[in-house]
Amino acid sequence: MTADGAAQGEAQRRILNRLKRARGQLNAVIDAVEAGDDCRTVVTQLAAVSSALDRAGFAVISSAMRDCAADSAESEGASSTDGTQRLTFDELEKLFLSLS
What DSSP character marks residue 36? Predict the structure, then answer.
């Protein structure tokens, strides 16, 4: 495995961990609502879910930005080494702004 492949694998692992954490927090929100917990508990858990999802989204975009920057010799929109279509910097910016 190349250094780039290892870095992408590590980034994917971190993103999956963040998403799994968000899933656990969402389960806690559902449990709190089903149990009739107070508003403060539900909102606190919901804020944690929202934050975890935001962080996962930023991590995805950050990974894509690193990928694009690492291959700056290729033209924007070219295919990556795994055959997927690369995002242009304009597309990355739009995705990034959609999270704010």
Answer: T
Spatial contact of 57 and 88, defined as CB atoms under 8 Å apart: no
Q: What is the dihedral of CA 90, 100, 20, 68, to 10 degrees?
A: 20
Q: Which amino acid is at 51?
A: S
Q: What local confidence, expressed as pLDDT, does residue 2 receive?
A: 63
Number of H helices, E strands in the chain: 3, 0
Q: Domains in the chain and their CATH numbers?
A: 3-98 (1.20.58.1000)
Kindly report the pTM of this predicted structure. Answer: 0.65
Which phi and psi (to 5°) does residue 85 adopt? -75, 125
Tokens 């999956």 -> residue: 16
Residues 32-73: tens digit of each pLDDT: 999 999 999 999 999 999 999 988 888 888 887 777 666 654
